[in-house]
Design goal:
- By secondary structure, the protein is α/β, with parallel strands linked by helices.
- It is built from 5 helices and 5 strands, in the order αββαβαβαβα.
- A 5-stranded mixed β-sheet has the order 1-2-3-4-5.
- Strand 1 and strand 2 form a beta hairpin.
């Protein structure tokens, strides 16, 4: 095998693995609470990944009209994971995602923000109006209580 062939194979392999990571970076999990999905967000966040998460969620919702609640779990995100993503930009991206979901009739809920991450977003001076809970469990419990109240 020549060096050029080896480089070509390695490039193809790299593209293959990049597509796997890209597809795995925005899992959408149906919840035990009816009409609710979970979107766990963990690890390194950058513009392209955040845009991918937004696109995947909006596409999923368009295909699954029964969904009413979208819970984004940021428990696995530290301030180091967003270091290349300006906190101003991150707050704006979350705000835009929130607006898009509300325009589609969804109830976006955010859980698990790291205290340092919150501190940096607040320090960035961007006002973000979002519904938050401390944990995924507390968000689901709140949704279950609301569901019971409707019965």
């Amino acid at each position: 095998m020549t060096t050029e062939q080896e480089i070509l194979e390695l490039k193809e392999q790299l593209e293959y693995y990049k597509s796997i990571v890209y597809n795995m970076s925005s899992p959408i999990i149906p919840s035990i609470v009816s009409k609710t999905i979970l979107v766990p967000v963990a690890g390194y966040i950058y513009r392209e990944r955040f845009n991918n998460i937004e696109t995947e969620v909006l596409t999923y919702i368009a295909e699954h009209r029964e969904v009413e609640n979208v819970v984004f779990d940021y428990t696995g995100v530290s301030t180091d994971d967003v270091s290349s993503f300006d906190f101003n930009e991150l707050a704006l991206a979350i705000s835009n995602l929130n607006s898009s979901l509300k325009l589609m009739g969804m109830r976006p809920i955010y859980v698990g923000f790291n205290p340092k991450l919150i501190q940096e977003i607040v320090r960035a001076g961007v006002h973000v109006e979002i519904e938050t809970y401390q944990s995924f469990r507390s968000a689901l419990q709140g949704l279950l209580n609301e569901e019971k109240g409707k019965l």
